[in-house]
Design a protein that fits this description.
The protein is mostly helical. The protein is built from three helices and no strands. Helix 2 packs antiparallel against helix 3. The protein is flat, with a radius of gyration of 20 Å.
């Protein structure tokens, strides 16, 4: 496998993330300098924090479900791409999303 292809992909991902961080910081600074009320600023920051935590929870649950799916595939001894293999991975991803929905709904 040629790992040289990962260098441009990683570079693109890093540049994209850096642009996102700069744009988010600029929007916050403009919001504060525009004379927005403290309550508005606090609610926006609290909303971003909750959204960030929920995104981490969602990805964590999905990755754990996918790991279980890969474990099932390994236990069954499947080595080639087949509809059953894809179904297990798609089902694991769906179960991870449903678990996230249940956890977030229970917390509300």
């Amino acid at each position: 496998m040629d790992f040289a292809i990962f260098i441009p992909i990683t570079l693109f991902a890093c540049i994209t993330y850096a642009i996102k961080v700069v744009v988010d910081a600029r929007v916050r600074r403009q919001l504060i300098s525009a004379g927005g009320s403290q309550e508005l600023v606090r609610s926006i920051v609290a909303g971003e924090d909750l959204r960030r935590r929920n995104a981490s929870l969602q990805w964590g649950l999905i990755l754990v479900a996918l790991a279980i799916g890969f474990g099932v595939i390994q236990a069954l001894g499947w080595e080639s791409m087949s509809p059953g293999l894809i179904a297990i991975l798609a089902g694991a991803t769906g179960l991870g999303n449903l678990a996230f929905f249940a956890v977030v709904r229970k917390g509300q």
